[in-house]
Amino acid sequence: MGVVLRRRTGPFVVTTPSEFPMAISVPPRDDPYARRAQMFPKLSPAQLARVRPFGQERTLEDGAVLFEQGNSNVPMFVVLSGAIEILHPSGEPGGEPGHPDDELLTVHEAGEFTGEIDLVSDRRSLVRARAKGTLRVLAIERPRFRALVQTDAELSELILRAFILRRMGLVAHSQGDVVLIGSRHSAGTLRLQEFLTRNYHPYSYVDVDDDPHVQALFDAFHVGVTDIPVIVCRAERVLKNPTNPELAECLGFNPTLDAEAVREVVVVGAGPAGLAAAVYAASEGLDALVIESDAPGGQAGSSSKIENYLGFPTGISGGALAGRALTQAEKFGAEVLVAKTAVHLHCDRRPYVVELSDGSRIRAKAVVIATGAAYRKLGVEGLSRFEGVGIYYGATHVEATRCAGEDVAIVGGGNSAGQAAVFLASRVRHVHVVVRGDGLSESMSRYLIRRIEETANITLHVRTELQSLEGTDHLEAVVWRDDRTGDRVRRPMRHLFLMTGAKPNTDWLGGCLALDDKGFVRTGTDLPAPELAARGWPLSRPPFLLETSLPGVFAVGDVRSANVKRVASAVGEGSICIQLVHRALGESAVVAGKAG
Fold it and tell me: Do 310 and 209 belong together in one domain?
């Protein structure tokens, strides 16, 4: 079905699910709304009895609004009698509840409950809820809701599965509180699409190149084509080419923090390692805060399908894995900041201080460094000019939509490059994989190599290097060189994916930690005694397994020296690390006690 955004200037179709495949966890053809029994379950009398102690009973009259799109701290409502209509607002600026163009998503009847992932993440509501008939409900406030899902395993599974499916449905059908007006020729548009998608936030997309009604939208919000990309938040605020932090602020992604609080553990980075650390820290009762500069998932979050991760025989996308891990961490009480960048670690005293790009400071007894690594940028002239308009560093549905039916090239021979090649091959005309080595066996899993070998529209170019790029406002052609023959080959090509090497995200550490010669953080037995002595290691014991040259500061995942570059390894390190954090916290408590 089309998602219609209506304005006083008249109706127009913004997008359809097939045109806008934004669902992180499922492809559009697997519609979450088809799983209605799991999406909108009905509590049994026994289950309802277990829920009652967590809520307070309320009665509302017909037509009463329980909550609006954009409201914060919305409770979960369990229907005792009557019904609740869940509506996606029309988007009419200043529109009143009950606008005739509001889209009815579902009706909750006795035994059913409201809510979706925003209840777990403490974000704003994406929908409107209205009483249908005289209504009796149990209102379960968010602290009590969290207590419920932490203490009742059966209800936790039932509720969280429903919440995840509901968010998937909103994403797949673009039923959110954001309109993005952009162009496939705009790097800023791609950046915002990726940010919203990887943060699992539904939005409607209007492409100025295709939509015949776009001028009406420009007129409604007093913007023009030179302003794109434009974000409209809840038909109230208009942002012209916003930064990711500005968009996060507009949507209310982040909680307000107590500037004076001292956290037991701060995890910097929300890739697989950081999310695993957050899950284990929060589930074991630690006061945990996660800081993520962009969106949860790290490099793995842009993987179209991971098939060798334990427990997922049919594979799972990196985005789906990250989304579930984030929900898991928040279920146990971890707080997560997104679009917040750590710019400096103050390590001269404890508690340590993590300084953010907005100037705020967070104090922590222990710190887990999980900032990962970024793909290295090739030294090819004009590279930055085409980033986002022909050159990409991830292969998700967003990028695949841009290059459908065309030829693409992927530079890199690791698993991420292999996953991208296999994923794109079903959506583009031809995939060229370019590697400097003699083959893929040293850097890629065998199952991916076989997929590449057996896919007719994938060609592997070994001992080949990218030489130059051509184009004006968009990439138009690439030139690569065959090192065996010296031949230079020019190919008309508008889409190039770069997945080469890894540069650790450690610049922000400011000399606090011992690094190896490539800039990765050294930990545990990789820290020789002379270096520890030179850095003033203050303890009689050596560093723990994942501990850095600073007591109570740990490094996990791709940022760590000698790390195995696999998702399972990162998750393992993140979970193991928390046991060591407990020991370090206990140690510091003993020292503080003696000092007292």
Answer: no
Q: Looking at 203, 228, 251, which one is the last position of a domain?
A: 251
pLDDT tens, residue by residue, 519-534: 999 999 999 999 999 9
pLDDT at 52: 97
Helix axes 153-172, 318-331, angle to 10 degrees: 140
Residues 340, 356: contact at Cβ < 8 Å?
yes
pLDDT at 91: 59
> SS3 for 354?
strand
For the record, the structure tokens of 195 come out as 């940010």
Place of tokens 């995890």: 267
Q: How many domains does the chain have?
A: 4
pLDDT digits (tens, 9 = 90+) for 281-332: 999 999 999 999 999 999 888 888 899 999 999 999 999 999 999 999 999 9
Preceding omega of 53 cis (within 30 degrees of 0): no
Is residue 280 domain-shared with residue 142, that is, in the same domain? no
CB 360 within 8 A of CB 254: no
Q: Round to whole Å and give the CA distance between 577 and 593.
A: 24
What would the two tokens of residue 384 be? Answer: 């930055």
Long-range contacts of 341-349 (CB under 8 A, 24+ apart): 341/291, 341/293, 341/508, 342/268, 342/291, 342/293, 342/371, 342/508, 343/508, 344/508, 344/510, 345/508, 345/509, 345/510, 345/512, 345/513, 345/553, 347/510, 347/512, 347/513, 347/550, 347/553
- CATH number, position 267: 3.50.50.60
User: Distances in Å between the alpha carbon of 578 and those of 70, 247, 585?
Assistant: 35, 32, 10
Domain residue limits at 564: 262-374+504-595
- Domain end position, chosen among 441, 463, 498: 498
Asked whether residue 477 falls in the same domain as residue 576, the answer is no
Helix (H, G, I), strand (E, B) or coil at 524: helix
Reduce the DSSP state of residue 78 to 3 states and report it.
Answer: strand
* Residue 471 confidence (pLDDT): 96
Same domain assignment for residues 51 and 165: yes
**What are the b/e assignments for 89-113, b being 16+ CB within 10 Å?**
bbbbeebeeeeeebbebbebeebbb
Which single residue is written with the structure tokens 């509506």? 87
At residue 217, the pLDDT reads 85
| 379 within a domain of the structure (yes/no) | no
pLDDT at position 93 is: 44
Is residue 7 domain-resident? no
What parts of the chain have a pLDDT lower than 70?
A: 1-34, 91-100, 589-596
Strands 103-108 and 178-182: unpaired
* In a shared domain, residues 458 and 539: no
Tell me: do 287 and 368 sit in the same domain. yes
